[in-house]
Amino acid sequence: MFVDKVKIYAKGGDGGNGQVSYRREKYVPDGGPAGGDGGRGASVVFIVEEGLRTLMDFRYNRHFKAPKGENGRPKNQHGANADDMIVKVPPGTTVVDELTGQILADLTEAGQQAVIAKGGRGGRGNSRFATPANPAPDTAENGEPGQEREVVLELKLLADVGLVGFPSVGKSTLLSVVSAAKPKIGDYHFTTLAPNLGVVETADHRSFVMADLPGLIEGAHEGVGLGHQFLRHIERTRVIVHVIDMAAIEDRDPYQDYLSIQDELKQYNLRLTERPKLIVANKMDMPGAEEHLELFKEQLDEDTLIFPVSALTKHGLKGLLQKIADELEDAPEFPLYEEAEEETRVLYKHEKRKDPFIIIRGDDGVYEVSGVELERLFKMTDFQREESIRRFARQLRKMGVDAALRERGAQNGELIRILNYEFEFIE
Q1: Would you tell me the crossing angle of helices 254-268 and 289-299 to the nearest 10 degrees?
Q2: pLDDT tens digits, residue range 189-219?
Q3: Torsional sign, CA 179, 180, 181, 185
Q4: What phi, psi does 277 have (nearest 5°)?
Q5: Binding site annotation covers 165?
Q6: CB burial readout 162-171, b (16+ within 10 A) else e
Q7: Is 388 known to sit in a ligand binding site?
Q8: Where are the beta strands (DSSP E) in 35-160?
């Protein structure tokens, strides 16, 4: 089964907890703190595996949780770092954060890798908190929580040339005769339910990858038919080849077919209109094809090359392949996303840094404090130790949480909620 879009959950490993311990050695009076740091949690890392062709492996395994780091130990022994979780993906995989729409990675080359969910750092042991004023601290940090997110994986085939057109115009037949690919061929609509790839070699020994994409119909960019599922695969192609049934076997107008496909590509992604394109007038061996071709040329008001061919008899294919190879030599690489999306990502990060916490009043009247940085500090605090609690209170005061609560009208003794835990507000 060809799977080209899945949603998965990825979580980096939590860091190991820091240790609270003291030196207990003979002849060493007042040995002081000796708690080691926790190890770093593992990250979820995607790496491109050249042999993969679909996202089928993610259909039944959609949760990836990396292991946590080892806790610190006495005698200043640090916990071991966890090994990263390696997840293999096929070439052409784009990783998008579902919540923000941010493109996290565009993985196209074999061996290329990207960290999708970063592991948390290890918590510091009590030896890290020793000062002249407090030489024997009784506090340590819990490990930092690993990053967690839901991401959407989209596979966009890495093909140089994309064959587009209405169903049953001969795209699969054309691919089968110019390459070693064996796509399913039939005299009914939507015979092709998944894109097919084939390597084409010209007479002068130039080669390129051609993709036969499922048939498009009017309204495909809005989700009509099957073609909308595979429009994303056209985004990476450098040359677009329109295949048209010039014999009009199904009584469709070849020129209107061409205009419809052009409009669908434009509606889906305006940049697709910038690609070099060729028109293949297929089924020229059929009766009436010559008359339709002459009429098509009269109606076409743009300077686009037209190649009359017959995929069945292989007539005209040599010149077509030579011209495609020529176009590829000058065709540029096209970016996958607009620069405006990059600006959106920068603004999103800036806004997240600008607001370290937010305060709202819950339905039950309790003040709820939340925020990425605040919740990270909360999870890294060991609330079993009095000194760690006092340290957390000082951190909140330094962040301005106390002052913000007073501005919102919080009174002495009122409840404050952080995550699922409640505290009393003390003046």
Answers
A1: 50
A2: 444 456 677 788 888 888 888 888 765 554 4
A3: positive
A4: -140, 150
A5: yes
A6: bbbbbbbbbb
A7: no
A8: 44-48, 63-65, 85-89, 93-97, 103-107, 113-117, 148-155
* Among 387, 386, 370, residue whose Cα is nearest residue 378: 370
Q: Confirm or deny that 354 is annotated as ligand binding.
A: no
**Is 111 annotated to bind ligand?**
no
300: nearest Cα among 283, 284, 278, 315: 278
Q: Give the pLDDT band of residue 188 (cuts 50, 70, 90).
A: very low
Tell whether residue 213 is among the known ligand binding residues. yes
Residue scoring higher pLDDT (201 or 77): 77
CA distances from 259 to 166, 299, 302 (A): 11, 11, 12
Share the mean pLDDT of the chain: 81
Radius of gyration of the chain (CA): 31
**Percent of the chain surpassing pLDDT 70:** 84
List for the chain the helix, strand, coil content (%; round to 5): 25, 25, 50
Q: What is the pLDDT of residues 352-363, one digit of tens each?
A: 445 678 888 888
Helix axes 171-178, 317-330, angle to 10 degrees: 90
**Residue 11 · residue 66 · CB < 8 Å:** yes
Does the annotation place 285 within a ligand binding site?
yes
- Using CA atoms of 411, 412, 415, 419 in order, give the dihedral in degrees to the nearest 10: 90
More confident residue, 158 or 411: 411
311 is in an annotated binding site: yes
Residue where the block lists tokens 């998944």: 194
Q: Is 172 annotated as a binding residue?
A: yes
